[in-house]
Amino acid sequence: MARPISRRHFLRRTAAAAMLALPMAATAKKSAPKASKASVRYQDHPKGRDVCGRCRFFLPAVGHSNGLMMQGTKANGTLAIGHCTKVAGRIAPMGYCILYTPRVHSQ
Ligand code: SF4
Predict the structure, then answer these.
(1) Could you tell me where the beta strands, DSSP code E, fall in 2-93?
(2) Are 13 and 67 spatial neighbours (Cβ–Cβ below 8 Å)?
(3) Domain ranges within the chain, ordered by starting residue
(4) Quick one: pLDDT at residue 44?
(5) Residue 85 CA, closest ligand 1 atom number
(6) Which residue did the predictor score with more confidence, 11 or 32?
(7) 3-state helix, strand, coil in the chain (%, to 5)
(8) Helix (H) or strand (E) holding 82
């Protein structure tokens, strides 16, 4: 036979369960899977003037050169291979996919 549970005990348990569930929900949201290159028709060359390097989802590679932090640029000033917040795998700055969304520049 189950023991009766007090209202205080019930509320404590419910609050504890909610506290445990919140971080798990936040983690699940962060680790949303990325799309495959095939599913977004990724190509390693531009479509007209539209290129990953100008897309708001492009993440340039980060490296060091001569002790200075370089963000996504090679010695010749071009963007290095990077990543994308929406598409899995290495992404060429001169690539393109159907999720292309141009960055908005403030002037
Ligand atoms: S969303 Fe598509 S176009 Fe934009 S950076 Fe990612 S792969 Fe390139």
Answers:
(1) 58-59, 62-65, 68-71, 83-84
(2) no
(3) 33-84
(4) 95
(5) 6
(6) 32
(7) 25, 20, 50
(8) none
